Fold this protein.
Amino acid sequence: MSCETSSVHRVFAGSGTIQAAIDCAMDGDLILIGPGVYRERLNLRGKTLCLRGSEGANKTLIDGSPLSPEGPRGSTITMRSGEGAQTRLEGLSIAGGDGTGTKRGRTQGGGLYLKGTSPVIEDCLILNNSAWQGGAVYLEDGSPHFINCWFYLNDSRGGGSTIDCVRSSPMITACGFHEDGIQWKDAALVNIGPGCGIVGACCVGDACIMAGETACHAAGGAWKEHQSCNQADCPMACTGDVNGDHRVNMTDMLLLLAHWGMCG
């Protein structure tokens, strides 16, 4: 899948901001983000846009952490104005957010706060975010689609899970979770890769990725039929050193995400 665009807005690190490009853009536009670190938080304001890292998530970081210890806090990316499936995030690292505040003084959705929206998030790293509820993502009343994404070291301080869903039915396709999980409240069952045959949890080291049996075994993983990653207990003994550096880590999982797809 890809964006059908009208105009292209280019953003470069150290020159302008992504939010300024969002504010100027019209529905159907592409915002092409150059490599670098962007210390800002984004709100798509209901626009039908595609935000794409020109060189992928490994080189394009949106860091929503406060600029000072006393600075205001919030989610790194917010969508709460009816954004649909034509709104897309592609090839971005989303980090440093600590959630949108609630009336009870708690926070929701460290990396992504999605309320009443159904965007597509593809080829993204969602890492090192925190919130009381939904350390990585908070979903409410929506059906977003996560494709080839990797969730890593997100912290839900309230004891919940990295993705917290309320009355939502997200689709999660070929995504990896490391030391993270998914929690569902009043939500439909997660829909993983319809039409792709039998898909299960594949343990690679102590991490997990959704994949077909053939692809999992080819990568030296342990496949668990009809289980999702939040159900699977992945043992440390699984082999998953894809790049030969004698460690099973996020780099190995990214290599798998880049090559597997869902129908292997």
Remarks:
- Residues 186-197, 236-251, 258-264 have pLDDT under 50 and may be disordered.
- The CA atoms of residues 218 and 264 lie 10 Å apart.
- The chain has two domains: 8-191, 196-264.
- The domain at 8-191 is CATH 2.160.20.10 (Pectate Lyase C-like).
